[in-house]
């Protein structure tokens, strides 16, 4: 049950973003991307457990797939329905009630979304990016985070693109031009900064 | 059921915005505002029927009340629950499945929301504002619409503030400084501009 | 001479905004507004001296008057030329080399301007608004500051509208709906928060 | 002399953006970038002549280099002063009085700038990107243009990065993920769409 004004209980300088993981993979190269994404599921679940233990918020930042109804539940339901090719992947990484959820209309997690305002409420100064695709929505979100003076980290083994070459080039690009730190999930240190 | 990329079927130069109508009225002067808002319900319902007949989209632009879960359904459920003081009002003007829904984190319907992008998809050049409160979220949305070169109309008898004086001053302010046209709902002309 | 990366020397939680003071007054009610603005000149100059002594930055936030050349000097030159009706006023409050300057294309100081980024560099959490017109650009900037969680103060005797009634209504509106504190310049306390 | 409201005489569906060409090259790899940029100068000058003949606006979108004074002239003066390593390059491509000028605080030409509003005034639906560096500010501006539903073209031989490999990877990235068309300047077709 919604308790107005009581739902942002977190204060945290670090925030983890799960980008476009609720996905229908219904686009060109969707099957290739799904194949690359499958190994991420277990790592993402583990990362989320670690974040929760450190009281660090996890924010799902997800395409609205042209739905424009602000209805995260419908998007989840569509992506896990019987005939959805990515249903196993999406079920494995589906949001829990305590996770935050921001719908985005375009590639970047910051463009025409309340992500800026939500990060401000958290008191966040650093974001860790996970999700798909590395060379598209992750790159756009990394640039936009960097322009807002946020410290941007990319969890390299929690991101995927349609193939490994594109994934690696995108990581190198973000390191060189978006001030991004590229690390594996295992080497992320989550400090409990909650207040 | 969500059909990706098929949900924005409208093309329309005119769009009607229903602002903060899903409301819990749990704030100072909430009861005063509710009392002023009650007579709007029938007019808003009628306005929506007329818009639908003219194939003009209605977009609910609503506070997320600090929930940050992109979950329009929870907000509706909270506002119509048994003990909600505004449950009758909210039930009377609740969204239908074909209505659009944009959640906003702050006062203006444009600040950190996808409203700009949605209006671009519609091909909209004119917005008609309805909702509460006239002197707060309606004023902010009117100014932001005007700065985006949208033609702004305010349906004066489909808006309310905590008292009539504040309502009227806000209407005069928007007319003088936000380029807003102030008209009654009955005098709105909805031309079917769908393509 | 420009010294790259050396020009933002200020760190300050408080910032003073001078809004649309470089003005040509060439619009309907321009002469009425100029008449109301003339008494502000001496107070604005004094306020700027006090801000400078406390090491608080003053940012001119000014309409570009459709010029789109990012050329603050041309705008100043136009407003103080021989035949400009506001030349005396503008000369009296013209920017000094140490003042900052942000051009805005529309009413709000925040809309499509770098003001957000500049305030972030200062580390600012509070803005004090001065300028013209109280019921137009000051109102829009107050709302936008409030939505960004900035503490908004309006220096009531350093703002003016085309007449006293509009000025006072706008002050009351900002107090009630934009969380603005309304005070006279003399009662502003500038704490030296520079680091 | 500034003539208010008369300065945007252009109406054009196409606009050419000259990004970060007024540059001091005073950053790591600045000399490498300058060496790659030098051959662009003649092509950029020719492109501008062609755009002008077709009545297509050219907008310089340039870093403010931390200056925050909205003073395009100072930035130009600094970049062409005697000891500036890029003075020859900058002199060759300096703006003419009829060119537009937008200062940007960060990488993207759209972030906290009036570029959106200026393009709206032009009625622009397509942007052609030229400038430096391909893998940084050009990439960010291409993504942001694409998210705004603008048709994005990159003039490949009017852009440069610190080396050819980075330049080519960035072009491939923009083609794959930002919907960008990659063409040489010679193959650009400028249709006179002025109204």
Q: Whole-number radius of gyration of chain A?
A: 16 Å
Classification by helices and strands of chain A: alpha/beta
- Could you list the spans of chain A in which at least 5 consecutive residues all have pLDDT below 50? 1-5
What is the average per-residue confidence, as pLDDT of chain A, rounded to a whole number?
Answer: 93
Please give the share of residues in helix of chain A. Answer: 25-40%
Strand content of chain A: 15-25%
Oligomer: homotetramer
Total count of strands of chain A: 6
Overall form of chain A: globular
* Helix and strand element order of chain A: EHHEHHEHEHEHE
Largest sheet of chain A: 6 strands, parallel
End-to-end CA span of chain A: 24 Å
Largest interface: A-B, 38 and 39 residues
Number of helices of chain A: 7
In order across it, which strands form the biggest sheet of chain A?
3-2-1-4-5-6
Model description:
4 copies of one chain form a homotetramer. The first copy, chain A, has 195 residues and is of the alpha/beta class. Chain A is 37% helix and 19% strand. Chain A contains 7 helices and 6 strands. The first copy, chain A, has a 6-stranded parallel β-sheet with strand order 3-2-1-4-5-6, with helices on both faces. In chain A, helix 7 links the parallel strand 5 and strand 6 (181-183). In chain A, helix 6 (134-147) runs parallel beside helix 7. Chain A is globular, with a radius of gyration of 16 Å. The relative contact order of chain A is 0.21. Residues 1-5 of chain A have low confidence and may be disordered. Chain A binds chain C through residues 120, 148-149, and chain C through 120, 148-149.
């Amino acid at each position: 049950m919604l308790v107005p004004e009581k739902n942002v209980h977190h204060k945290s300088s670090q925030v983890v973003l799960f980008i476009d993981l609720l996905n229908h993979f219904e686009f060109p190269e969707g099957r290739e991307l799904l194949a690359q994404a499958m190994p991420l599921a277990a790592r993402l679940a583990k990362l989320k457990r670690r974040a929760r233990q450190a009281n660090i918020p996890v924010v799902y930042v997800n395409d609205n797939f042209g739905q424009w109804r602000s209805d995260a539940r419908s998007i989840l339901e569509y992506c896990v329905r019987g005939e959805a090719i990515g249903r196993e992947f999406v079920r494995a990484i589906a949001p829990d009630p305590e996770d935050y959820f921001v719908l985005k209309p375009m590639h970047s997690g910051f463009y025409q979304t309340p992500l800026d305002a939500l990060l401000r409420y958290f008191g966040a100064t650093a974001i860790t990016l996970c999700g798909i695709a590395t060379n598209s929505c992750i790159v756009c979100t990394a640039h936009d985070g960097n322009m807002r003076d946020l410290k941007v980290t990319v969890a390299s083994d929690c991101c995927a693109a349609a193939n490994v070459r594109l994934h690696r080039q995108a990581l190198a690009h973000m390191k060189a031009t978006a001030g991004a730190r590229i690390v594996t999930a295992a080497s992320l240190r989550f400090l409990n900064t909650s207040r």
